[in-house]
Amino acid sequence: MEKIGLKYGLLTAAGLIGYFLLMSLLGLVHIIELRFLNGLIMAVGVSMAIRAYKIKKEGNIGYFSGFGVGTLTAIVSTTLFAALMLLYIKLAGDSLVEVLSAERYFGDRVQSTPGIVVFSVLMLEGVISGVLISFIAMQYFKQKSHKVPGSP
Question: Taking the chain, what is the end-to-end CA distance rounded to the nearest angstrom?
Fold first, then answer.
């Protein structure tokens, strides 16, 4: 279970990092709405991890073990992506901190430091979305066959 979560967490992190670097090269980092695609990348990675785990277990996975694989994938990928973002902020300057903190997650009185922004915006957003995606994906993957109950 851990190997699959780690493998797909690394692949998902590579997808998130590649997407961010592409947005950076195109000068689109400041468009917050494009972060929606991070969720799609996370959804693909988590779903692939749960599917790989189900194949490895020959279709017989418990709900919580599949959910755990998806959550582990989300944690690994989000942690690696957040580490890259900290490095990017240190090297490229604090302009990304201003963009991310412009949403007023922190209120007017709290000074937005790179650590606070990365933890509260990226880590929480990534892990929470990954857990929700794992929950949703397990509604599909928990069944042995994907037929309507009671149908022939």
Answer: 33
Supply the mean pLDDT for the chain. Answer: 82
Residue 83 lies in a domain: yes
Print the domain residue range for 132: 2-141
- Asked if 69 contacts 37 with a C-beta cutoff of 8 angstroms, the reply is no
DSSP state of 119: I
- Contact call for residues 72 and 9 (beta carbons, < 8 A): yes
Whether 32 maps to a domain, the answer reads yes
Q: What is the pLDDT of residue 94?
A: 66
- Other Cβ atoms less than 10 A from the Cβ of 122: the count is 22
Per-residue pLDDT tens over the stretch 12-50: 999 999 999 999 899 887 787 888 899 999 999 999 999
